[in-house]
């Protein structure tokens, strides 16, 4: 059981994510070798190197905490104690193609509840962090969710799973229902960045299906710290291990939930 405060965890996550992001930046637009873990699910040497560094640094600074990462796996602490959830390169497809929207995402959770997180997007020269009971920051300045209350004025974001063959989970139907009702929909290809853009008021909401806990834990912590709302797609309490997630400013949450379920 850690005795560290959520703010300390957020600061540790930021320090480690910043160092790992330098590894990614060193390979950006360098045509990295790619391995397919699954259809449209890619991994590069930079994913692996980033996670190795993250695990080493977190083990040095918080030896009492379990670590779960996208590439090397792991299990949450069995007693519900704080656990790290790390995505060493969120947005690998973007990274492989030289697109700027990728990041390192490191979040801490206690019994599945987001405590703290940091997201560093090196090609965008932007970072976010936030912690339970504290503040959300973008590039060191306080940020907050938007005040948009009308769905027709909302800019929202979404994403699609790597396996898009199943109509019940590929998100196409929900996208079609939402598109005519909002000002616009964006798809940047990084769940962690999407969540942070809700936290800083760029997006008014974001939803996606079939995410993993390492995709969303850091961004979810930042959203909550910024005054936002998280739920499952149907508006019930979120289970971040399942990954069907809706995040918003809270003002358009219920109306959007009806459209996407």
Account of the protein in words:
This protein is an alpha+beta fold. It folds into 2 domains: about 5-140, Fructose-1,6-Bisphosphatase, subunit A, domain 1 (Fructose-1,6-Bisphosphatase, Chain A, domain 1, 2-Layer Sandwich), CATH 3.30.540; about 150-260, D-Maltodextrin-Binding Protein, domain 2, CATH 3.40.190. The chain contains 7 helices and 14 strands. The protein has helices at about 5-25, 45-60, 90-95, 170-180, 190-200, 215-225, 255-260; strands at about 35-40, 40-45, 65-70, 85-90, 105-110, 115-120, 125-130, 135-140, 140, 155-160, 185, 205-210, 230, 245-250. Strands 3-4-5-6-7-8-9 form a 7-stranded mixed sheet. Helix 1 packs antiparallel against helix 2 and helix 5 packs parallel to helix 6. The longest helix has 22 residues, at about 5-25. The chain is globular, with a radius of gyration of 17 Å. The chain starts with 5 loop residues before the first helix and ends with a helix. The model has no long low-confidence stretch (mean pLDDT about 95).
Question: How would you summarize this macromolecular structure in one to three sentences?
Answer:
This protein is of the alpha+beta class and 261 residues long.
Q: How much strand?
A: 25-35%
Q: Whole-number average pLDDT?
A: 95
The strand order across the widest sheet is 3-4-5-6-7-8-9
CATH homology-level superfamily of the largest domain: Fructose-1,6-Bisphosphatase, subunit A, domain 1
Task: Specify the helix fraction band.
Answer: 25-40%
State the major sheet. Answer: 7 strands, mixed
Distance between the termini: 38 Å
Write down the Rg: 17 Å
Number of helices: 7
The CATH topology of the largest domain? Fructose-1,6-Bisphosphatase, Chain A, domain 1
């Amino acid at each position: 059981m850690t005795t560290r405060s959520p703010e300390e965890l957020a600061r540790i996550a930021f320090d480690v994510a910043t160092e790992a992001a330098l590894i990614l930046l060193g390979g950006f637009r360098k045509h990295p070798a790619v391995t397919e873990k699954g259809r449209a699910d890619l991994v590069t040497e930079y994913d692996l190197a980033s996670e190795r560094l993250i695990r080493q640094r977190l083990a040095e600074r918080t030896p009492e905490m379990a670590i779960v990462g996208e590439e090397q796996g792991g299990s949450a602490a069995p007693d519900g104690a704080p656990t790290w959830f790390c995505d060493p390169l969120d947005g690998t497809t973007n990274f492989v193609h030289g697109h700027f929207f990728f990041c390192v995402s490191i979040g801490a959770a206690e019994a599945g509840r987001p405590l703290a997180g940091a997201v560093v997007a090196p090609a965008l020269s932007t970072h976010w962090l936030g912690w339970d009971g504290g503040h959300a920051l973008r590039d060191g300045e306080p940020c907050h969710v938007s005040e948009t209350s009308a769905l027709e004025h909302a800019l929202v974001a979404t994403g699609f799973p790597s396996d898009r063959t199943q109509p019940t989970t590929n998100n196409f139907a929900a996208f079609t229902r939402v598109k005519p009702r909002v000002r616009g929909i964006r798809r940047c290809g990084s769940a962690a960045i999407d969540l942070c853009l809700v936290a800083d008021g760029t997006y008014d909401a974001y939803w996606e299906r079939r995410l993993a806990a390492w995709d969303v834990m850091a961004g979810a912590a930042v959203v909550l710290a910024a005054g936002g709302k998280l739920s499952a797609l149907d508006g019930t309490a979120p289970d971040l291990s399942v990954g069907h997630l809706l995040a918003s400013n809270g003002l358009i949450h219920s109306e959007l939930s009806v459209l996407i379920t």
